[in-house]
Amino acid sequence: MKITDVKVHVIGTAWRNISIVQVFTDEGLEGVGEVRMLNHTDALQGYLAEALPNHVLGHDPMDIESLVQNMFRNDFARAGEIAMSAIATLEMACWDITGKALGQPVYKLLGGAVRDRIKAYANGWYTVERTPEEFHAAAKGVIAKGYRALKFDPFGAGFYELDLAEKARAIELVEAVRDAVGPDVEILIEMHGRFNPVTAVEMARELERFKPSWVEEPVPPENIAALKKAAEKINIPVATGERMHTRYEFRELLESQAADYLQPDITHFGGILETKKLAAWAENYYVLMAPHNVGGAVSTAAALHFAASTPNFKIQEHFNDFADEWVKSVAPGNPEVVDGYFALPQGPGLGVTLDLEVAKAHPRQQVFFNLFAENWHRRQALRPSEGDK
User: Fold this and answer.
1) Which superfamily, per CATH, for 108-350?
2) What would the DSSP string read from start to end of 11-79?
3) What is the three-class DSSP state of 9?
4) Where are the domains of the chain?
């Protein structure tokens, strides 16, 4: 079997564009991969245009390791977000094809299931005014939807430091959410790499009484020593890793034991198998995996197959019950969240089927998403010219 063609479809919402990659073979089997590129959609397409004739077309889609290694090493450049995202879309599609060819779900090809359900947490649910009353009501809606865990960033557009009023406001928002969901629901605090170590430590200590399950990216991701400095004084588990794109970038993080949970994004990390390799390495340090997932249904499918087959998995992020719920209909087939958990994915391959008519009904949007803009959490349209305001 050989890869004969690759097509890219971009679907758009008010705050994100999602690139869906279709891989075709000479035996009539098709596979699908996906990535949400944050403001880099054209860069992804440019990379694929050059990579396809050199690495992909004519390749056996079942030789997944060979395909990934060729794309990773043979260009000689140091692989980063663009290359690893492109590789991931093709890798996922090849797993989809392989599963279909063998009549098995992907997780069966990765060693089989190690659990019978997959814990989920909600994100994208707090697109409301930053008031305790609004966050309280929105959090109630998450519980009503069937979730038993939810994540949010209460820190507005903060960067490095917060003034006293913003510190108080963030604490009030977390207090409101904890009150809304009660003591038995997990709350996860997103810091988005906003803070210097001293501010991250201060805010984490203020939030300890609300018993969050983790603080995520307390400092920017480039400096592992700064993360270790913060983590040693934070009494809440630390999660990080969504902006790290190769296994090699995690070496110092694991060796310094500066994080309790790793959050690689499968769609930015070279795909499912690369993430499985990181998980095996992390298990030596008793570190758990909680993959970042801000994409659509195909990204979620890949994450569910990873979760089903990975012993040191903790919990799976999911946006699409709250942010652009129609995105699920672009590639239906995933289980829904029930009582806080996904069931195991069903069907051969990834278990989802691309609906091109739905995809075409939601074309690419000219948007720029900036986590340091005022009211970014509303996830409303922000045009490129507004990105630095």
Assistant:
1) Enolase-like C-terminal domain (3.20.20.120)
2) EE-SS-EEEEEEEEETTS-EEEEEEE-SS-HHHHHHHHHHHIIIIITT--TT-HHHHHHHHHHTT-SPP
3) strand
4) 108-350
Give the orientation angle of helix 164-181 with respect to helix 132-144, to 10 degrees: 30
- Segment 35-61, tens digit of pLDDT: 999 999 999 999 999 999 999 999 999
Q: Which of 9, 55, 136, 192 is catalytic?
A: 192
**How many Å is the maximal CA-CA distance in the chain?**
63
Q: Report pLDDT digits (tens) over 62-118.
A: 999 999 999 999 987 788 999 999 999 999 999 999 999 999 999 999 999 999 999
Nearest to 178 by CA among 168, 188, 191, 166: 188
Residue-by-residue DSSP string for 260-326 = SEE--BGGGTT-HHHHHHHHHHHHTTT-EE--B--S-HHHHHHHHHHHHH-TTB--EEE-TTTS-GG
* Residue 362: active-site member: no
| Pairing, β 214-216 against β 288-289 | unpaired
d(CA 221, CA 228): 11
Instruction: Check 9, 55, 268, 292 and give the catalytic one.
Output: 292
> Could you give the CA distance from residue 166 to residue 148 in angstroms, rounded to a whole number?
28
Q: What is the mean pLDDT of the chain?
A: 96
pLDDT at position 388 is 45
**Residue 9 among the catalytic residues:** no
